[in-house]
Amino acid sequence: VTQVVEREFTDEARRRWAGRLAEMALIFELTGRPDAAALARAAAGQLADAGRPAAQIPFARGLARRALEVGAEVAAGRISASEVSRQPRERER
What's the pTM? Predict the structure, then answer.
């Protein structure tokens, strides 16, 4: 997990994720979900802190762990790679 976090959470990736999480915090706040807003805001703050190693950020570790779990499921043939693609799915008509 640590190696994946260190490889994938570059400065640019950290900025992108921090921005996404800050936006999510705002949406959570506006929709009456203060606990979720606080969690998203905290994760955004940790990612934005360049002095904090990415491997010490719970959000980054959790995301990497989940990615590895999904990769293992695909490798084992339990789920299809197309089911977990980063590409948007075609909408059914």
Answer: 0.79
